[in-house]
Amino acid sequence: MPISASKLSSSAENPVNCHAHSWLKHYSQSRAVSRGLEKQGFSSVSADNLLSKAHIKSLAGTLSCSSREIISLIRDHPFLIHMDLNLLERKINLLLSYGLSVNFIRENLRIVYQTSEKVIEDRLKLLQDSGLLHSQHLETDLVAHLLESNSSGFSKSLQYRYDQRDALEGCPDQLSYLQVRLGCSEEKARSLLCSYPLIRRASNVKLKTLLDFLLIEADRSPEFIIKHRKLLAFSVSRLRQRWSVMQKAGLESEGAIVFVWCMPQKQFEKQYQEYLEVLNSSSSAQS
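^ thats the sequence. predicted structure below, dont judge the formating
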């Protein structure tokens, strides 16, 4: 949507609007440069026509690379031509101060253009204070995603990361978590992770929810879970519904329980129709 002149003029009175105006100006300049380079063909434009040698040298120093590499970076990030060097340097130093590497910055230069200095600092501080930054629960490439996201996207992604970390209940990874929850050796835990279905990388939250159900609600032993690991492929809602039916049907043997949990849905509905009707009527009465 076009921004009216009155809105732009009022931006000077408000620091937030002023930042938005500044960002819009940089964005417009970058788009203009990009269109110009595309129109002329970047290979036909020499570095001297784009930037002074001093500017290129300053950029090279800031990004710890050669002048030749800077020209290559400009091909992908034309905003480097017009972006204020002091602002660029401040943002890069800010990223470095939180332990992010120069290589990370060069590979994710969008951050220094798309995200304000204040937002970068606020988000990095939040990630550091929460213990997510530089932890096994947050891959480096996801740091870039979080720093580039809009406010809503950042909040959702961050909450997802919190949930995944908290699901492991203090353990650094799923291997350690399985050893703790199942009281098994590292060898057995690794065997679980390297076989179906966990080899498909179930989320931490799903893994915890499944183990909570099987160990607590269904009162199954760790040995039962290790032996019948294929049950971890199903949803908790499926397992819970069938467990309720089996309890009403009086099924107790291990073989029968596993068989019912694994049988096709149509077969299950046909064979246990009367119990399902009782469960459904009970649920309707409670609601």
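Confidence is low (pLDDT under 50) at residues 1-20, 37-47.
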